[in-house]
UniProtKB/TrEMBL annotation:
Coiled coil: none annotated. This is Transcription elongation factor GreB. Necessary for efficient RNA polymerase transcription elongation past template-encoded arresting sites. The arresting sites in DNA have the property of trapping a certain fraction of elongating RNA polymerases that pass through, resulting in locked ternary complexes. Cleavage of the nascent transcript by cleavage factors such as GreA or GreB allows the resumption of elongation from the new 3'terminus. GreB releases sequences of up to 9 nucleotides in length. Gene3D superfamilies: Transcription elongation factor, GreA/GreB, C-terminal domain (3.10.50.30), Transcription elongation factor, GreA/GreB, N-terminal domain (1.10.287.180). Residues 86-157 form the Transcription elongation factor GreA/GreB C-terminal domain. It comes from Sphingomonas jejuensis. Belongs to the GreA/GreB family. GreB subfamily. Residues 6-76 form the Transcription elongation factor GreA/GreB N-terminal domain. One of its GO terms (molecular function) is translation elongation factor activity. HAMAP family: GreA_GreB (MF_00105), GreB (MF_00930). Keywords: DNA-binding, Elongation factor, Protein biosynthesis, Transcription, Transcription regulation. It holds the Pfam family GreA_GreB. It comes from the Bacteria.
Length: 161
């Protein structure tokens, strides 16, 4: 599998780096110590601390590998430096209205920092792909699992530098 370059905000990259550093510098050494202590107790076949520790160490190593690959492929993009603030691009906070005039506010962020419940949608999500390049007043149709839905762009805002 070839990792494609993925855009990420500076805050998203910092959070990813902090998780990597915490796992590598704190969590992993603590689990290694638990495994060493449990192994010194003798029979490992029925030693819960040893078995759980080995399982947790594999989970940590797998997560570290994933984070390492994602950080290597990440391209940090600062939305505050967006030259064209009238259109929807990476990092934009967009106010949308549907046919019933129900408003929704979403921010386009990197896929690794997406949180739909908080209104942060991933750059490669269907809604983000439909919104890319749109300006205020444009209508965009988004293919959703429940069917297509049309949204009007009400406002486009970028963070200040």
């Amino acid at each position: 599998m070839i990792d494609r370059q993925n855009p990420i905000t500076p805050a998203g990259f910092a959070a990813m780096r902090a998780e990597y550093d915490a796992l590598l510098g704190t969590e992993r050494p603590r689990i290694v110590d638990v495994i060493a202590w449990a192994a010194s107790n003798g029979d490992r076949s029925e030693n819960g601390d040893y078995l759980y520790g080995r399982k947790r160490l594999r989970e940590i190593d797998r997560r570290l590998g994933f984070l390492s690959r994602r950080m290597k492929a990440a391209k940090v993009v600062d939305p505050a430096r967006q030259p064209d603030r009238s259109r929807v691009f990476f990092g934009a906070t967009v106010t949308l209205a549907d046919e019933d005039d129900a408003e929704r506010v979403v921010t386009l962020v990197g896929d690794d920092e997406a949180n739909a419940g908080a209104g942060r949608i991933g750059w490669s999500s269907p809604m983000a792909r439909a919104l890319r390049g749109a300006g205020v007043g444009d209508l965009r149709t988004v293919a959703l699992p429940a069917g297509a839905k049309e949204w009007e762009i009400v406002a486009v805002v970028y963070p200040d530098e």
